[in-house]
Amino acid sequence: MKAYFANGLFSQADFDFNAKLVAQLRTAFPELTIYLPQENAAINDKQAYADSKMIAQADTDELTSSQLVIAILDGITIDAGVASEIGVAYAKHIPIVGLYTDSRQQGATNSKKLAALQTIAENQFHYVNLYTTGLIKLNGDITNNFADLTSSIRKYLS
């Protein structure tokens, strides 16, 4: 089985996170071939040149030949490329497993945090675009930790 790993890759933090998480997933699932776009030097060597059509074609080919998409939902907003990849996967009926680790999702029963929602600019929680997360939930799962991520992936490997 082949999986497409979707996350931003332009900051050193994202690049390193992607490499670390994909290495862990490759160890946990040796039967799973994971395409990590940052490893594709033909389109992502930033010292070289690849135009928008080259990037779109290469990543879409990899995405549509996959049987699973693993999408990272963290960040100020979902990365624009990741949101596009989620849309393509949904349209092609490719299951999607999202990983959303933002710590601001904690405390959902804290009465002070809930009350703060009534005060302008005091939202204690993080917002994730509901359309994009809805596409995932209609065709997959959203998890918030590595153990649940691996359980969800395992479900799709069966």
TrEMBL record:
This is Nucleoside 2-deoxyribosyltransferase. InterPro entries: 2'-dNMP_N-hydrolase, Nucleoside_deoxyribTrfase. It comes from Lacticaseibacillus pabuli. Pfam families: Nuc_deoxyrib_tr (PF05014). It comes from the Bacteria. PANTHER family: 2'-DEOXYNUCLEOSIDE 5'-PHOSPHATE N-HYDROLASE 1.
